[in-house]
Structure formats: C-alpha cells, structure tokens
Amino acid sequence: MTDQDRKAARREIADALLRALERRHEVLDLMVESDNKAAAIEAIVSSLDMSHVAAEAVMGMCFDRLTKDSRKKIQAELEDLNKQLSFTLGEPATAPAGRPATSTTRSARRSDESTTKRRRGSLPSTRARRSAWCSASWSVAR
User: Fold this and answer.
1) d(Cα 59, Cα 42) in Å, to the nearest integer?
2) What structural domains and CATH numbers belong to the chain?
C-alpha cells in the first residue's frame, strides 16, 4: 500500500468519524437498537452512506473522541489530508503516470500478502489495530 493509499484510507475514516460525530445521537441509537455488532455496522453503513471499514472505525471509536477538542483534531487532520491528496473524497485514487489502475499493481499484491500474513498471525489483528486507533494521539504531522 502506497503512502497516498494510506492517506486516502485515513481521510475516508476521518471524514466518517466527523460525520458520525455530527450525527452522534442517531449513530448511538443505531448501535443500541442493533442486535449485534454486524447489524450495527450495516445500519451505520446504510444510514450514513459510508464504507464498511469506515463504519467499523465509527463502531470502534472511544468515547473520549466525543469531546470538542478531539473533534477539532480530527477536523484538522482531515483538512491536512485533503491538502496532501490531489483527489477529493468520493473520487477513486488514480494510478501513477504510465500505469493502469488495475488490481494487479504491486500495491494490490502487497495488500494480498498482508491479508495472508494477518491470517497466519504475523500481522496485528483488526482488534489490535482498532485498539491502537483508539489510543493513538491525533497529532497532525505538519
């Protein structure tokens, strides 16, 4: 996964977190009324029109992210990522000049390798990454 791909994924999640925080009462109602986690994620996906990855980030969000200070930090991060990336949310990332945007690119193969390593246990699990997400500081690299 290239640096730009990581930034694009992070931007998608930051945008989803901000949208969820703006509609926090609705999101909490969706979570509380759901039978299980998978149903809550599906409800968030359909209600807020976001990806499953973004909805999982919303589900895994810690309550300390509800503070005004945390929301400002997320907003600042999103603005910084928007400045760094040449495409806007909703547009697909383009492949580097001279290369077709196909699933057979090197980054796609690395992603497949990461999935295999994660299944074997040599990479952190989703739960470990989500835990790191909650505990990560929201400092924006300038």
Assistant:
1) 11
2) 3-95+102-135 (1.10.268.10)
